[in-house]
## 1
Amino acid sequence: MTSLKDKSKSSPAIILAGGLGTRLRPVISDLPKPMAPVNGKPFLHNIFQYLVRQQINEVVLSVGYKNEVIQNFFGDNYAGIAIKYSVEIEPLGTGGGIKQAFELVNDFAFVINGDTFFDVELAALKEFYGHSNCDMALSLKQLQNFDRYGTVKLDKEQRIQEFTEKQLMSEGLINGGVYYLSKKLFDKVEVSNKFSLEKDVLEKYVHTLKFYGKTFGGYFIDIGIPEDYQKAQHDFA
């Protein structure tokens, strides 16, 4: 079992904030997706408020497209959280962005999608990682009647056995996009500089590395499509 004593009391969070927001372009114009306005403030503002509640004091923002818009708004400290920037010169994919951001992290970090809000108890995810002695701990969300997401299948020990393709599901567990891992994970996989965390790590190594999933019941929204972006305006009011 991995001891949690070798991890800092408050691990930093890496936020993936390089999304183009292509499907939201008609509603948000020419902005990075995490900067989409929700009740007058960027969607990313709500993630920072959540991280304050989770007692996170350091963030690495993985940015690319129009990164100056994000840097000008958030600066090097926002809501009491210190910020570093990992700037992608060209799009590196979710995996490449995370790997580069880990160059600014000592070892362990949470990873969060900048266009998704999932109210996960981060301390519980970190503890689950330690008790599971796994390579990565994933947050999972139970959904009903959906077709936008692939599903995750677990064994009785909560180890992930399979990631399935997107299809219409009456119910199932989805990857909620909040992770806890060590930078050493990337020493165990063969990847290029540009790669997808989901396809090139999680799906490819699901049977050789230990990926465990913990289900959380907290509020979840993904603003990737206009309908849910409009829903966020109401939910975060």
## 2
Amino acid sequence: MTQRMPTPTNYIMIDFENVQPKNIELLRQHPFEVFVFVGENQSKVSFDLAEAMQALGEKGRYIKISGNGPNALDFHIAYYIGQLAAANPEGYFHIVSKDQGFDPLIRHLRNQKIKAMREKDLAEIPLLRISNAVSKDEKVELIVSNLCGRGHSKPRKVTTLANTIDSLFTKSLGEEESMGLVKELEKRNHITIDRENVLYRLSST
């Protein structure tokens, strides 16, 4: 029996000076830890946000920043990502902000093999998009997109690919549906199966 790896923790770093999300409740059923970075001069949060954060329990935390310079909050987020990445190198970091000033930080983190990206809204987080995928077409599209982003580290065996697909959908599919999606990838010419080996044709999508 193939041993499955645990799902990496996704850390959500919300730039509350820039984005005030109204959909934090979307995160409750997922392996997320949420940090809301509040500006020094921000003295209030909405009841809906406070209620949603409270429901997250230990997985939800406010960080009140010190200082009010133009990049003060950005530096706080960078500091916490550094601390968390040192403790959990397999973690995935999502900065929720419309501020493009975070993009050089994200490029640097990726160069250091730290998984990070910026989203303008919580709904853009890939894991949430995946969890809301219902149709077979949506699932195949997300699987192909994920595989394309893996470069040379794609699964090379059928069973490994099936386990990867199940992990992508937070282990909610089960063996039968995961294998069914492998067959669907083959049917749509995204892959070729040679015995137990998987050959990719993703460039044809």
## 3
Amino acid sequence: MMHLFLNCLAASAGSGLTYVRNVVPQLSARPALRATVALSPQLRKELGNPSKISFIETEVPAGAAKRFCWEQVFLPGMIRRSGADVLISAGNFALRRSPVPQILLSGNSLYTSDDFYRDLRRRRAYRMWLDTRVRGFFARRSVGWADCTVAPSKAFADTLRSWTGGKVVSIHHGFDPEIFFNDHTPLPPSIQETIDAGDNALRLIFVSHYNYYRNFETLLRAIPIIRERLGGRDVQLFLTCKLLADENSGAHRTEAAAAMVKHLGIPNQVIELGAVPYHLLQHLIRACNIYVTPAYAETFAHPLVEAMACGLPVVASDLPAHREICGNAAVYFPRFSHQLLADKVAQVGQSSALRTRLAECGLKRSREFSWRDHVDQVIALAESLRPIAKYPRAA
């Protein structure tokens, strides 16, 4: 029986949480496998008591740099005591001297994004620019420290190979409709009343925390133009964040985006819901008409698969990762063109035939992503590395 050690201490939001929530049940279902998972106590509460899964709950220092240093010192001992055969390091950073063969899961496109570095300089976010450069240095070195690196899309795997020269394979992240559609709890009355009040509006949705690379400002600039293209029909944009400094985690400042909402005169069109629990996302997405993402950097984008599974047409920025994930289930626009974004949304909003075609393609495409397949491929990769474990590694 193979024993995997998953370092999930970096999973705190977004795709990291989605990954752990879906992968742990799949590992538990494998008869010839057991796993030890290192994670935060907060995340542990969500996962129940899956069979053959041991949990190590630990609080690590806040901040990527401090967590990285902590892991380099303390994680090897945890792995040795667990008796694991292979380490899977989530969170973009690997152990420099892993006591067992190591698979690195790398999914942060910002370290390789020229657009992101330009954006930070434009915003005068020099501290974040430097921090990202430093993290990027260790992320790049991590690919060399790992025995193999896994990227969530072919597009990002190609980027990592070019950037590092290391061994990188692509394994798509998955989607589990049984988990995503399992909860039938209705939306909170405050959200449902807002949706009902705009019954005749074209409802757009963008699922994301506020951060710069999601390119909120391009989407906001498009809203008045979409209304104009639709002959004055009301437009509502639902956001799963709030453009308030004290409501937004991290160092991304929301003041410019909030000021833009006021300047454009669209406070009634931008519905800032704040974080929506994962089990309610299906209801919110299905209550909308079009999923829109203007992101200028991406590696996979789970909400796109969730939106396609809900039958929503997608309007997405023209990134290789978006085209790889959505294929012909989306229409695309240049990532910084709010005018063309507005044109594409209006085109989809005005054509029931186009909406139907995109929705049908999206439903079909969403079925091609499977967490079971993802875990099968990761396990096969781990099995291929097990012979390395026969030879002692330097401490």
